């Protein structure tokens, strides 16, 4: 990014109006327009900054710009608001001077944005740290809160400040912010109840209805529809480019940062809602018996909701709208209010409620942002206040606003002249009085304690009897008749015979910015600003915490019959305090100008800007600055800038800077009356002299540029020539090297070819000789070999013929066996023990070997397969093997059980809580748990029983209750009987004479018969103290039931009733079991 090194470099127009030549109003406007068209919105008048509102975003407020202007001289860079803010901050920090920045201009000129830019710059360049950042954030976040409650959309500005704000920012000795104090002036509270066409009420009403949650609105008894509230204008309720919902969230967040508690925020919103509800209260006339009119509330719903919000009785407020109590000494007189008076009382209450709420907000913000330490602080004040206002219809508000601007103009002229005089004295320059228009006479016309307009207005308001605006105007005509700046139709200065623009109910004041016509209507009422005591007392009775603070005069214990001060008196006192405060500080001025009324960019309206230039007194400001010396500059920068104009000072001056400047000016033959030498600065009287210096410098710079270009071009050509020469030598050297290398390579290549041909011929000759010698040797060897062979064959022929057959046979057999084993290796079967495949034998004589190898391989893979088994799996297979030995080819049910694993515990008796009692009754580990059917000999039907098998006993228990029915020691079991069919019947025969055999043997039926019989047989086989249990497999066997023996006979039957096995009693000695045949 290019950084300008001086105000005079690359200048568009004239950056400082003091240097404008020739100086006239047209040239002034032309310079502003030229800079505005090139997006240069800032222009200086000495140390005053003129700011044009661009109505668009410009890339001149970036962090890089902040760093560019930080700690730089005021005139060092192009005009910018940052330059003024930096100058003020550095003067406060380094010179311990309190500062104030006065921002003035009409509505829409950009005053609020200018104050934000100043505060943001100061926040960016001051110190860092947690506490410092917290203070800076609170100071910056106070703006959104005050803007929401104090700004509104007007025809001139979408975010117009409807109050004056002065903020004192307090700093410590290091320049870090400690806190601040805000003062507010004259909130336009009449806007609460009435807005001009095309304008809105204060922002907070629209933000609340647009951005609050449905729950919040329900608590506040509000609706989002703007049209339901009389105090909100509908023609401009929605503003393009203004997001009320988002702004409401910003305001809530800002209030939290500043330090508002949640209940305080809720109380503020309740009061805002109460103002909206108050506007919806309407009245109707009602005649009394004595003939007087009395007002009554039409619809009491809004009144009721408002009272609920404020926590007050509805009847108290309703009476305050209908009656007025007047107290005089010890007497009280109660009078009724007609409809017009009731509406006046309602609006007065709404205005006072909102105005006092706004003042409370300012006080509450001050409590949060004020400095905590009591030590002396450095202070920077920022004043953002209304500019001079000249409307078609000017009333009391415009009158006191313009009075404030008169006072600011007065102090501006005084402080500017004082600053000029102090600098002249400081530099040792003779001070000459400057002629200028002193507006003290206008200020005196307004604020004189005896004959001033405000004093007469207060006197008229306090006068007993009938007081109207017309009587006030008559008094002005009487008192101010001879004043040269006051005009009316009955005043000798009015020239009413030929000036018909001055109506009868108006007066005109010739302000410093021009003549302003004021309509006297409403002056008395607005100055009185009365709120009936009944309403104050009614509000004080509310149970709302904030209301009692806003209406302390309503306290019955502190009744004050003294009339409250008027609005004009309060404002005059506030302005006086403000003026005294400003006079103790070093002033810095920002004059804001609005380029057009359309709020559009790139439009410059000459007439509008000319009007603002006049009433801001900018031409007078330039003339005051130019009345003495138009330009001044320290010696060092001046010598550095213009030293090339004199041979004695160029390029380096070795003496003091002042002497160098004196030599320079003498050489340039500058007239002595045009310049003056101070202690540290040179003063130039006429801008023409400065422009003469700049023109000479420009010409000199062009000559210097030509000289620099000439020297540079010569140096560049010489450098290029030397480089070319050096390059040519290098190229020639490399070429000669290349040529010699090429010649050498050619000679070497030719030599190599000759050598290769010679060596080839010699090699071929030697090869021929060697080949011939080898053939001779091979021929001799062959002949010798044949001869020796013949000799050996003759000698051993008789031995060979005797043993040749046996050797050939052995060799053949060996090759066949080798081939057999290799073929067997490549065609081996899988490792599965059940795989029956085996390669066919190729020769019959290998039949025995082939069979033996098959057995060996099968045994080996079975061993490998068994080695993979775990102990549990081995036990399972041992049981399966034992089952095979018992039942294979004997029991038709066996094949179907082979693929079914022996699970053992089918009931999960240890896990199932149903069998917990049964499990605890068995001491040993349960090997098998299953449900079996115990066959009844009486009818052949089965009863479900739980069958538990351990190493020593088997137990039968009831399936439902888990109660043990029988516990039989295994040694008492002698044998087991089953059929050959596919049934699950089995009989457990007990030892005769044993205690278990009292009731006889057990005939049972189970789906897991194979597993039960196998486990019983296996337990008997492993027990060392008893014989192995016999398993009798037969279709007929005897079962002992008590004293009788019954024959159980198994027969095959056709499947008539399904595939289930049935048992029937034929007689006392026979049970017949029918087993369905398989299809």
TrEMBL record:
Q: Which residues form a coiled coil?
A: none
Q: Where does ATP bind?
A: 105-112
* Gene3D superfamilies found in the cross-reference section: 1.10.10.820, 1.20.5.190, 1.20.58.530, 6.20.240.20, Kinesin motor domain (3.40.850.10), Myosin VI head, motor domain, U50 subdomain (1.20.120.720)
Return the similarity comment.
Belongs to the TRAFAC class myosin-kinesin ATPase superfamily. Myosin family.
Q: Please name the source species.
A: Neolamprologus brichardi
Recorded hits in SUPFAM superfamilies, A to Z, give:
P-loop containing nucleoside triphosphate hydrolases (SSF52540)
Principal localisation: cytoplasm
> Which residue intervals make up region (Actin-binding)?
575-597
Biological process GO annotation list? actin filament organization; actin filament-based movement; endocytosis; intestinal epithelial cell development
Give the protein's function: Motor protein that may participate in process critical to neuronal development and function such as cell migration, neurite outgrowth and vesicular transport.
A Pfam family cross-referenced in the UniProt record is Myosin_head
Protein name, as recorded: Unconventional myosin-Ib
Please list the residue ranges annotated as the TH1 domain.
891-1077
* GO cellular component terms listed in the entry, alphabetical order: brush border; cell cortex; microvillus; myosin complex; plasma membrane
């Amino acid at each position: 990014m290019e950084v300008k090194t001086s105000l005079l470099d690359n200048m568009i127009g004239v950056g400082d109006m003091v240097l404008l030549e020739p100086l006239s109003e047209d040239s002034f406007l032309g310079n502003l327009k030229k800079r505005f068209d090139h997006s240069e919105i800032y222009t200086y008048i000495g140390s005053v900054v003129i700011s044009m509102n661009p109505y668009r975003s410009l890339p001149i407020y970036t962090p890089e710009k902040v760093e560019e202007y930080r700690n730089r001289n005021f005139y060092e860079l192009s005009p910018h608001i940052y330059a003024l803010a930096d100058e003020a901050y550095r003067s406060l920090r380094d010179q311990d001077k309190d500062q104030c920045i006065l921002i003035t201009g009409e509505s829409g000129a950009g005053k609020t944005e200018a104050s934000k830019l100043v505060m943001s710059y100061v926040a960016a360049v001051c110190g860092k740290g947690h506490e410092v950042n917290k203070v800076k954030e609170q100071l910056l976040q106070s703006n959104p809160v005050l803007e929401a409650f104090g700004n509104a959309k007007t025809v001139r500005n979408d975010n117009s400040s409807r109050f004056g704000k002065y903020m004192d920012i307090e700093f410590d000795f290091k320049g870090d912010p400690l806190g601040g104090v805000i003062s507010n002036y004259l909130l336009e509270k009449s806007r609460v109840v009435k807005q001009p066409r095309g304008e809105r009420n204060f922002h907070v009403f629209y933000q609340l209805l647009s951005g609050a949650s449905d729950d919040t609105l329900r608590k506040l008894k509000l609706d989002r529809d703007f049209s339901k509230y009389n105090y909100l204008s509908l023609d401009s309720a929605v503003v393009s480019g203004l997001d009320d919902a988002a702004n409401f969230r910003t305001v809530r967040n800002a209030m939290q940062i500043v330090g508002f508690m949640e209940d305080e925020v809720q109380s503020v919103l309740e009061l805002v809602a109460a103002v909206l509800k108050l506007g919806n209260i309407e009245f109707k006339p009602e005649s009394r018996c004595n003939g007087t009119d009395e007002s009554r509330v039409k619809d009491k719903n809004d009144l009721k909701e408002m009272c609920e919000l404020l926590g007050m009785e509805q009847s108290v407020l309703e009476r305050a709208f209908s009656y007025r109590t007047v107290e005089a000494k010890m007497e009280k007189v109660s009078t009724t209010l007609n409809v017009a008076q009731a509406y006046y009382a309602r609006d007065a209450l709404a205005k006072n409620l909102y105005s006092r709420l706004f003042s409370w907000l300012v006080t509450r913000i001050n409590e949060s942002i004020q400095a905590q330490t009591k030590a002396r602080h450095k202070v920077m004040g920022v004043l953002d206040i209304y500019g001079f206002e000249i409307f078609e219809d000017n009333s009391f508000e415009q009158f006191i606003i313009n009075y404030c601007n008169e006072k600011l103009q007065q102090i501006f002229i005084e402080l500017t002249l004082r600053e000029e005089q102090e600098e002249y004295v400081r530099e040792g320059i003779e001070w000459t009085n400057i002629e200028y228009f002193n507006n003290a006479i206008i200020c005196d016309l307004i604020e004189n304690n005896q004959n001033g307009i405000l004093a007469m207005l207060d006197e008229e308001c306090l006068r007993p009897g009938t007081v109207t605006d017309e009587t006030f105007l008559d008094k002005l005509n009487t008192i101010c008749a001879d004043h040269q700046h006051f005009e009316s139709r009955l005043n000798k200065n009015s020239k009413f015979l030929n000036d018909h623009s001055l109506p009868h109910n108006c007066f005109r004041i010739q302000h410093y910015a021009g003549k302003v016509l004021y309509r006297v209507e409403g002056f008395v009422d607005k100055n009185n600003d009365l709120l009936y005591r009944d309403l104050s007392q009614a509000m004080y009775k509310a149970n709302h915490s904030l209301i009692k603070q806003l209406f302390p005069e309503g306290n019955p214990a502190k009744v004050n019959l003294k009339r409250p001060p008027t609005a004009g008196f309060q404002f005059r006192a506030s302005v006086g305090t403000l003026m005294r405060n400003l006079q103790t500080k070093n002033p810095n001025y920002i004059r804001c100008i609005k380029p057009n009324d359309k709020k559009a960019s790139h439009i410059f309206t000459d007439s509008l800007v000319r009007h603002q230039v006049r009433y801001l007194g900018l031409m007078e400001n330039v003339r005051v600055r130019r009345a003495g010396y138009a330009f001044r500059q320290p010696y060092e920068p001046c010598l550095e800038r213009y030293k090339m104009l004199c041979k004695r000072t160029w390029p380096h001056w070795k003496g003091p800077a002042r002497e160098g400047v004196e030599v320079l000016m003498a050489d340039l033959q500058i007239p002595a009356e045009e310049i003056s030498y101070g202690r540290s600065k040179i003063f130039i009287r006429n801008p023409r002299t400065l422009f003469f210096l700049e023109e000479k410098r420009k010409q000199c710079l062009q000559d210097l540029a030509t000289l620099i270009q000439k020297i540079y071009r010569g140096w560049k050509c010489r450098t290029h020539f030397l480089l070319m020469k050096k390059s040519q030598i290098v190229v020639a050297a490399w070429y000669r090297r290349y040529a010699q290398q090429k010649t050498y390579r050619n000679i070497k290549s030719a030599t190599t070819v000759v050598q290769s041909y010679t060596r080839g011929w010699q090699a071929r000759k030697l090869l021929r000789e060697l080949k011939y010698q080898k053939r001779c040797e091979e021929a001799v060897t062959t002949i010798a070999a044949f001869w020796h062979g013949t000799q050996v064959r003759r000698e051993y022929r008789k031995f060979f013929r005797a043993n040749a057959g046996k050797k050939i046979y052995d060799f053949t057999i060996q090759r066949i066996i080798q081939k057999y084993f290799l073929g067997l290796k490549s065609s081996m079967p899988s490792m599965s023990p059940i795989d029956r495949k085996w390669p066919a034998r190729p020769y019959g004589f290998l039949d025995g070997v082939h069979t033996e190898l098959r057995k060996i391989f099968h045994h080996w893979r079975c061993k490998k397969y068994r080695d993979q088994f775990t102990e549990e799996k081995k036990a399972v297979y041992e049981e399966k093997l034992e089952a095979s030995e018992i039942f294979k080819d004997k029991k038709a049910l066996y094949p179907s059980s082979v693929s079914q694993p022996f699970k053992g515990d089918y009931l999960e008796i240890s896990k199932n809580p149903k069998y917990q009692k049964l499990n605890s009754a068995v001491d040993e580990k349960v090997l098998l748990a299953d449900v079996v059917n115990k066959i009844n000999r009486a009818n052949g039907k089965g009863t479900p029983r739980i069958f538990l098998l351990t190493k020593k006993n088997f137990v039968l228990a009831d399936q439902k209750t888990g109660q043990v029915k029988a516990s039989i020691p295994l040694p008492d079991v002698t044998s087991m009987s089953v059929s050959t069919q596919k049934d699950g019947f089995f009989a457990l025969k007990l030892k005769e004479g044993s205690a278990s055999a009292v009731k006889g043997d057990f005939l049972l039926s189970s789906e897991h018969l194979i597993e039960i019989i196998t486990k019983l047989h296996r337990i008997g086989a492993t027990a060392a103290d008893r014989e192995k249990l016999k398993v009798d497999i037969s279709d007929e066997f005897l079962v002992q039931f008590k004293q009788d023996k019954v024959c159980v006979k198994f027969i095959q039957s056709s499947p008539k009733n399904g595939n289930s096995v049935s048992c029937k009693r034929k007689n006392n000695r026979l049970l017949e079991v029918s087993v369905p045949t398989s299809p």
